[in-house]
């Protein structure tokens, strides 16, 4: 059985149900989003996840408006969270700051003008299914931007990671659903499981060196 | 007569005990909403088993159908969501896949 990753699940009261369901669906690794105030619960949840049979990592999603906030929040978060992600940031800010300090950037916040900078900084990009469906449901025009970004960034072979973004068990997807839905969304024929297998593995290895002793998990 | 390649998809609802007709109709409705009536016809979507729900589809439309299945309950107002557990070329194959340890194997 493959070791699939879901790198975005939101921490709520139902987290244990979510973790059990993830295991049922075939995932082995999960990354749980906590807010900064919830940082004390991380170790406890990681232990619970291990008891359930799933390996958990922690992440924080930052909304930043300027460079000072960007650097301050990242420095503050590095001590507590395994993965630091940028959920929302102005284009001008992303153009001028060092992106190597973050691990993940949401695909809806970037623009195509940042393509070469992101490629050079080796930052990973996140495609969130919950966000995609909520934008599509609201008929919000920003889903077009999300799709364009996904299409272009995938064409230039930037590392995109597929995540469910679920906060409750009903919103979780199986690995098959993620792998087949993404090509259908961006109009691509090739089916590839790297988005939930090798790329997330690379990200974890980069964010937490030494977490796995052996190659190939 | 042109022969087309079929794929079988095993679907489960969350929460369980949802009627198979609701499951099938919701998939068709989502497919229609996302890709239009022509895709519904061209994909040759059919319900082949009621329990577990297995649908057959033309192989080239497999990603479209899986996206439609994923959209149920997320895009429309259904109270349930659907998960795809296995995909295969024969009914026997996907039942075997799901019966063994590989629940979500490619």
Per the CATH scheme, the topology name of chain A is: TIM Barrel
Number of strands of chain A: 7
* The CATH top-level class label of chain A: Alpha Beta
**How many domain modules of chain B?**
1
Q: Number of domains in the coordinates of chain A?
A: 1
CATH superfamily of chain B: Ribonuclease P, Pop5 subunit
Rg of chain A, rounded, reads: 16 Å
How would you state the average pLDDT of chain B, rounded? 86
Q: Which class best fits the helix and strand makeup of chain B? A: alpha+beta
Strand content of chain A: 15-25%
Determine the CATH superfamily of chain A.
Metal-dependent hydrolases
> Uncertain runs of chain B with pLDDT below 50, 5 residues or more?
100-106
Q: Over the alpha carbons, how many angstroms does the gyration radius of chain B reach?
A: 13 Å
Name the strands of the widest sheet of chain B in spatial order: 2-3-1-4
Task: Please give the order of strands in the largest beta sheet of chain A.
Answer: 1-2-3-4-5-6-7
Roughly how many Å apart are the termini of chain B? Answer: 31 Å
> How large a portion of the residues of chain B is in β-strands, by DSSP E?
25-35%
Unreliable parts of chain A: none
**Overall helicity of chain A:** 40-55%
Could you explain how this protein is built, in words?
The complex is a heterodimer of chains A (217) and B (106). By secondary structure, chain A is an alpha/beta fold. Chain A has one domain (4-207): TIM Barrel. Helices cover 42% and strands 19% of the residues of chain A. Chain A has helices at 15-25, 42-52, 67-78, 91-96, 115-121, 129-137, 142-155, 175-186, 198-207, and strands at residues 4-10, 27-33, 55-63, 83-88, 104-106, 124-128, 160-163. In chain A, helix 4 links the parallel strand 4 (83-88) and strand 5. In chain A, helix 1 runs parallel beside helix 2 (42-52). Chain A is globular, with a radius of gyration of 16 Å. The mean pLDDT of chain A is 89. With 106 residues, chain B is of the alpha+beta class. Chain B has one domain (6-99): Alpha-Beta Plaits (2-Layer Sandwich), CATH 3.30.70. Helix content of chain B is 39%, strand content 25%. In chain B, a hairpin with a 3-residue loop joins strand 2 and strand 3 (53-58). Chain B is globular and about 40 Å long. The N and C termini of chain B lie far apart (31 Å). The relative contact order of chain B is 0.25. The interface between A and B is medium-sized, with 28 and 26 residues.
């Amino acid at each position: 059985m493959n070791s699939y990753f879901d790198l975005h699940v939101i921490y709520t009261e139902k987290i244990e149900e979510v973790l059990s369901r993830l295991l049922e669906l075939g995932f082995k690794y999960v990354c749980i989003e906590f807010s900064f105030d919830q940082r004390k619960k991380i170790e406890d949840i990681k232990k619970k996840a291990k008891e359930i049979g799933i390996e958990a990592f922690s992440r924080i999603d930052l909304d930043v408006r300027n460079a000072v906030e960007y650097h301050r929040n990242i420095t503050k978060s590095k001590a507590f969270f395994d993965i630091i992600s940028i959920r929302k940031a102005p284009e001008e800010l992303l153009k001028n700051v060092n992106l190597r300090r973050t691990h993940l950037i949401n695909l809806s916040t970037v623009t195509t003008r940042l393509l070469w900078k992101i490629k050079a900084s080796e930052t990973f990009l996140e495609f969130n299914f919950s966000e995609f469906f909520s934008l599509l449901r609201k008929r919000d025009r920003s889903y077009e931007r999300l799709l364009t970004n996904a299409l272009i960034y995938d064409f230039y072979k930037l590392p995109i990671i597929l995540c469910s973004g679920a906060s409750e068990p009903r919103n979780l997807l199986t690995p098959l659903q993620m792998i087949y839905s993404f090509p259908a969304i961006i109009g691509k024929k090739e089916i590839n499981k790297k988005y939930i297998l090798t790329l997330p593995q690379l990200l974890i290895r980069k964010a937490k060196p030494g977490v796995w002793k052996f190659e190939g998990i | 007569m042109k022969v087309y390649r079929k794929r079988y998809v095993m679907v489960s609802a969350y929460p369980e005990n949802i009627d198979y007709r609701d499951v099938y109709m919701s998939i068709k409705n989502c497919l229609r909403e996302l890709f239009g009536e022509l895709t519904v016809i061209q994909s040759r979507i059919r319900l082949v088993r009621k329990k577990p729900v297995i649908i057959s589809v033309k192989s080239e439309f497999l990603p479209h159908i899986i996206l439609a299945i994923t959209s149920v309950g997320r895009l429309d107002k259904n109270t349930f969501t659907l998960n795809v557990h296995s995909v295969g070329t024969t009914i026997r194959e996907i039942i075997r896949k799901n019966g063994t340890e590989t629940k979500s194997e490619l």
